[in-house]
Specification:
The chain is of the alpha+beta class. The chain is 51% helix and 15% strand. It has 30 helices and 18 strands. The strands form 4 sheets. Strands 7, 8, 9, 10, 11, 12, 13 and 14 form an 8-stranded mixed β-sheet that branches. It has a 6-stranded mixed β-sheet with strand order 1-2-3-4-6-5, sandwiched between helices. Strand 11 and strand 12 form a beta hairpin. The chain starts with a helix and ends with a helix.
Length: 700
């Protein structure tokens, strides 16, 4: 069986498992999984499930499975999603007539949704009515329509952002995420499907460039000047998919179009080049042609803007403000572009660094560059090292696999032999694998931000990342092993509720994700009001949720369900209601009578802090012993070389010199545990600055 066929079977098994556990249809489970992928890939800002299927007044079939949020909060883009999921032994082929039929169903729903007579036929609490009502009320704000098919079949021909005419003079594009594209993204983190920018054929002409790299340069680099009208047109087609993921997060976090850029475009377009810093971009590959006037950039594969997202978005906004003549002023605007060609095999390491340094003027600091931030590296290290207890149901210790960068889990598993995979699956069960966006859901739910979690995986992660960066900057000491174990306890709670909520008698279907995050936030909030804390350490030790605690969460979940499904008068869309601070405020005010036996699983803040202190003392002792063992094993000669190198590079303080001198006299003098811990910290700093003697010594 090929890797592709194996992926197909694994995906179907995962979706069926999620559907069985959650008590949902497989299509809904498929939508939830694909929704996270579409938002993380930049295709959407968020994905809300809203299934409807029926026949229109003209007897045409219509269907929709979800949408990409309120278009007023998505740059005027209305995104409609339809799912095509079938359980088959072999990979299906999606033929052109079938694909056309799927898109026609979406278009038929869209056309009918705008008709009051159609909406009047629908039950007001149904997903079909709520989505139709949203479309009708926001139609004047819609500037573009995206139709998206997600399918576990294979579509051979490319279909990505292709134009499909207009509806009410609003441009329509269609995109397909098929099984091959899904596999590419999940396995390798490839967010774009051959995003080829053909400047010459599609965007007004090739761009003059100057080569900026010489023969032995690490990267092929160019300097170019691109017209504002070209840049705006490219962004009009590809949107935020043109932006490198962390720059996309930066823009989401800050939101508004830069007024200074806008004013320059409107009032002094000829001065834009002089006033603006330009953009920095990367590409997998480029096509350069020699013309009579010099080299020109014909096309770029997977172009990504890693700095200048605000510039690009502002130019695009100016283009939209002139719908009749979008290029009137932008033809006079010229933007400097620095372009680096980064091979895909080095992209994960190189592009975040380019983004970091290029964005340093604009305060997109290393905290915004999530995958390579020290917080992420530490979390990954914990997840590969810390053993989870056997708990009450497991027969061996396991680990929770944190996927710092997209594709790590399938890559780690896929490069092993069949026997090694079985061992890997026992050590890292699939149920104990989680991503950055999963982490943000667990943490922000507990932190009392369920309305933010409900806004979608990507927006929620941006909010989590921003707050974590602030805490890290104050002190990284709080993000220790105890924090990691308690975070896993919160993950256990979240995932148990995902399974338990759909099994409750009061659950009517839909809004499971909202109910789960709201119930977690509610119980945590209520216990905090009573100056109590849920004993997360106990949940970590058991690796499961005790029945009395689960009952308490489900009580909160029932109340959350009531608040979410009964919005205030005038609010018709429950998914949008759950994204509002007012929804959370309403649940906070509800009084609940929790089960009396919950008290056996609660701690006072002092008791919780005492457990942290005990754990840290124990950790300090073991780390001191481990550091002393490492220092002694490295030997006196090693430390002598490290000391000389550090002094030569002026990287060590007088106090550190004294400690390293002691280490260089082993075994005549033995450094203390505390001195060894300092020596290891110094060594880590030296190695970060280029000291390489350690690997040589250890190898000998």
């Amino acid at each position: 069986m090929s890797e592709f066929e194996e992926f197909h079977r694994e995906l179907i098994a995962d979706i069926q498992g999620e559907a069985d556990v959650g008590g949902t249809y497989t299509t809904e489970a498929f939508f939830e999984k694909m929704g996270d992928i579409l938002t993380e890939a930049g295709e959407l800002d968020g994905a809300d499930y809203a299934y409807f299927e029926g026949t229109g007044s003209d007897k045409t079939a219509m269907q929709v499975d979800g949408y990409g949020g309120d278009p007023r909060e998505a740059q005027g883009i209305l995104s409609l999603i339809i799912c095509d999921f079938q359980v088959t032994e072999d990979v299906r082929r999606l033929q052109a007539p079938q694909l056309k039929s799927l898109f026609n169903r979406l278009v038929s729903f869209l056309r009918h949704a705008r008709k009051e007579t159609f909406r009047e036929r629908l039950e007001e609490t149904s997903s079909g009515f709520m989505l139709s009502d949203l479309i009708a009320t926001t139609w004047s704000s819609v500037t573009k329509i995206k139709l998206i098919v997600v399918t576990n079949a294979e579509k051979r021909a490319k279909a990505d952002g292709l134009p499909a005419g207009t509806i009410d003079e609003k441009p329509v594009t269609y995109t397909v995420w098929d099984i091959a594209r899904i596999e590419k993204y999940i396995r390798s983190g490839q967010t774009r499907e051959d995003l080829l920018i053909d400047f010459e054929s599609d965007f007004g002409g090739a761009i003059p460039v100057l080569r900026a790299s010489m023969g032995d340069a690490a990267l092929e680099s160019y300097i170019a000047v691109i017209r504002g009208s070209q840049l705006g047109e490219i962004y009009e087609k590809w949107g935020t998919r043109l932006l490198e993921a962390n720059v996309r997060s930066f823009l989401q976090a800050r939101g508004k179009v830069n007024r200074g850029i806008r004013d320059t475009i409107e009032d002094q377009p000829e001065m834009f080049f002089a006033y603006n810093n330009g953009i920095t971009a990367t590409a997998d590959d480029v096509q350069i042609r020699q013309s009579e006037d010099g080299p020109v950039l014909v096309s770029a594969d997977n172009l990504q803007i890693v700095n200048g997202g605000q510039t690009t978005a502002s130019i695009h906004a100016s283009r939209r403000q002139r719908p009749k003549r979008p290029s009137a002023r932008l033809d006079e605007v010229y933007v400097q572009m620095k372009l680096n060609v980064v091979p895909p095999e080095t992209a994960e390491e190189v592009i975040p660094n380019i983004s970091l340094y290029a964005n340093s003027q604009n305060k997109v600091n290393d905290a915004d560059l999530a995958s390579n931030h020290p917080f992420q590296m530490r979390l990954q290290e914990f997840s590969r090292r810390i053993l989870a207890p056997k708990g009450e149901i497991s027969y061996q210790e396991t680990k929770w696999f944190y996927e710092r960068a997209r594709g790590q889990y399938p890559d780690e598993r896929g490069r092993r032999t069949e026997a090694e995979r079985k061992k890997f699956d026992l050590e890292y069960p699939r149920s104990q694998y989680f991503t950055k966006t999963d982490l943000a859901k667990f943490e922000n739910s507990w932190a009392g931000l369920p309305h933010v979690v409900s806004q979608g995986a990507q927006k929620n992660f941006v909010a989590f990342q921003r707050e974590t960066a602030k805490e890290w900057k104050k002190s990284d000491a709080c993000f220790d092993e105890t924090w990691f174990k308690r975070m896993i306890a919160r993950a256990i709670i979240f995932r148990r509720l995902e399974k338990a909520v759909p099994q409750q008698s009061w659950y009517e279907g839909g809004y499971r994700a909202n109910i789960v995050t709201y119930s977690m936030a509610k119980l945590a909030h209520d216990m905090d009001e009573r100056r109590k804390l849920v004993d997360l350490d106990r949940i970590w030790r058991q690796q499961s949720l005790p029945a009395p605690v689960e009952d308490a969460f489900l009580l909160a979940a029932a109340e959350a369900h009531d608040v979410i499904t009964h919005p205030p008068e005038g609010v018709r869309n429950m998914s949008e209601w759950a994204k509002k601070q007012a929804c959370w405020a309403q649940l906070q005010q509800r009084d609940l009578d929790y089960p009396p036996d919950l008290k056996d699983f609660l701690l006072t803040p002092a008791e919780a802090a005492s457990a942290v202190d005990d754990e840290r003392k124990k950790k300090a002792v073991t780390s001191g012993i481990a550091a002393q063992s490492t220092v002694v094993n490295l030997g006196a000669e090693f430390w002598r070389v490290a000391l000389e190198w550090g002094k030569k590079q002026r990287l060590v303080t007088p106090k550190e010199i004294g400690i390293l001198e002691t280490c260089s006299r082993i075994p005549d003098r033995l450094p203390t545990d505390k001195q060894c811990a300092i020596a290891m910290d110094v060594l880590e700093r030296l190695e970060a600055d280029g000291f390489e003697e350690r690997s040589t010594q250890v190898g000998e």
